[in-house]
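FAQ

Q: What does a record look like?
A: Structure on top, sequence underneath. For example:
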């Protein structure tokens, strides 16, 4: 456990903490129907996601703690925003449900694997990263259109379907990865 917290107070991790701290403000702005403020706060969170990972690599400050914290921050920002936008009718409820189900399956697989093996290394796949990127782009576009009327509305249905397809593909990929890891672990027991 001590190894996980080694390198906890790095600049990339502090940026990730700031992203987590933005969540209640994004939620508050959405509940207050201040879509413009929600857009700018969400945009700041999305940019911080790009910055922290690149800084971790550039400064060689990657850590096990950061590997856990970053996806938690992403999920807190995205899921809270997705659900509130779906409740407000700004994005389809089916999309929010799909993302919640995908994340539930991925989390369930991780918990089951950790319970079986006693260990878990967080390593997002390129499909998982693509799904998160598309979700950030989609939510940013929905918020930007609602707040600033940029003429993005005709693009949104295609973006929903693309993000949904990548989310499903990444979810299926993670199921396959957990199944292969579990099979490999069980073979070591024999």
């Amino acid at each position: 456990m001590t190894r996980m917290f080694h390198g906890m107070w790095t600049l990339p991790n502090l940026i990730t903490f700031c992203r987590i701290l933005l969540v209640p403000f994004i939620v508050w702005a959405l509940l207050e129907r201040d879509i413009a403020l929600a857009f700018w706060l969400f945009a700041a969170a999305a940019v911080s996601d790009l910055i922290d990972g690149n800084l971790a690599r550039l400064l060689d400050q990657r850590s096990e703690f950061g590997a856990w914290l970053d996806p938690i921050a992403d999920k807190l920002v995205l899921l809270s925003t997705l659900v509130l936008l779906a409740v407000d009718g700004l994005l389809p409820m089916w999309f929010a449900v799909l993302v919640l189900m995908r994340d539930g399956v991925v989390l369930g697989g991780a918990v089951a694997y950790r319970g079986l093996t006693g260990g878990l290394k967080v390593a997002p796949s390129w499909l998982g990263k693509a799904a998160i990127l598309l979700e950030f782009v989609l939510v940013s576009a929905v918020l930007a259109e609602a707040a600033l009327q940029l003429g993005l509305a005709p693009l949104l249905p295609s973006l929903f379907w693309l993000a949904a397809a990548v989310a499903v593909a990444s979810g299926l990929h993670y199921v396959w990865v957990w199944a292969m890891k579990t099979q490999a672990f069980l073979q070591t027991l024999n």
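Q: Is there anything notable about this one?
A: The chain has one domain: 2-189.
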